[in-house]
Design brief:
Layout: E1 4-8, H1 13-24, E2 30-33, H2 44-49, E3 58-61, E4 64-67, H3 69-80, H4 88-118, H5 124-145, H6 158-164, H7 171-174, H8 178-181, H9 183-193, H10 201-204
Parallel strand pairs: 1-2
Antiparallel strand pairs: 1-3, 3-4
InterPro entries: Glutathione-S-Trfase_C-like, Glutathione-S-Trfase_C_sf, Glutathione_S-Trfase, Glutathione_S-Trfase_N, GST_C, Thioredoxin-like_sf
Organism: Bradyrhizobium vignae
Protein name: Glutathione S-transferase family protein
Length: 215
């Protein structure tokens, strides 16, 4: 079986997506904590030796460094025969929600949460704009999950793993009470947490944490 090393920092929901996917597939990985807050990913040396895109996570598979979370999730789903799609229609739906998440839900939530909780002084108007956009996206997801157990129907896929990652972090970081504001999302997060082998991000991704200014 392949060996895995995951370059991450604990607050990275994208890192959590890969850590959770590997864990749910019964695999282990060597954790490589990265000083994102200290700016290491912005250095020329790190970009030369680890990831030219300057991003976390990086997944090493048998020593080969691989980047970009969505294609890695799809690759792992195909490799392990889990959390993928079977029919052509399911494949289209999986990609539809995966791309939507990357462009909308994860894209905005990652930035909003980082600015809100892990930046000492944030622009309130920028936060207000991001919050308004997120409420729209969460409303879309809540409406979809009122009629579907998971993103593409009755079983979880990598689209669910991708969408839930940033939403499961503590509410004092992202500032939402999903049980009150988006009950279908809250119930779906519970179904994801009930999957055999599921673990929260801060358990899967150890190491020094950034200061949470929103507490």
């Amino acid at each position: 079986m392949p060996s895995y090393r995951l370059h991450y920092f604990p607050e990275s929901g994208n890192s959590y997506k890969l850590a959770l996917m590997l864990t749910l597939c019964g695999e282990t990985f060597e954790p490589v904590w990265t000083d994102f807050a200290g700016g290491v990913t912005r250095t020329a040396e790190w970009r030369r030796s680890v990831n030219e895109m300057g991003e976390i996570p990086v997944l090493e598979i048998d020593g080969a460094k691989m980047t970009q979370t969505a294609p890695l999730l799809l690759r792992l789903a195909e490799q392990y025969g889990r959390f993928g799609a079977e029919t052509e229609d399911e494949k289209f739906e999986l990609l539809r929600w995966l791309f939507w998440d990357n462009h909308k839900l994860t894209g905005y939530m990652a930035t909003y949460r980082f600015m809100r909780a892990f930046t000492e002084k944030s622009d309130s108007q920028v936060l207000k704009h991001f919050r308004r956009r997120l409420e729209d996206f969460l409303g879309i997801l809540d409406g979809h999950l009122q009629h579907n157990e998971f993103a593409i129907g009755a079983k979880p896929t990598v689209a669910d793993i991708s969408m839930m990652a940033y939403l499961h972090y503590p509410s004092d970081e992202h500032g939402f009470d999903f049980a009150q504001s988006h009950p279908a999302v809250h119930a779906w997060l519970g179904r994801m947490a009930a999957l055999p082998g599921w673990k929260p991000a801060y358990e899967l991704l150890p190491g020094k944490r950034m200061t949470n200014y929103a507490k």
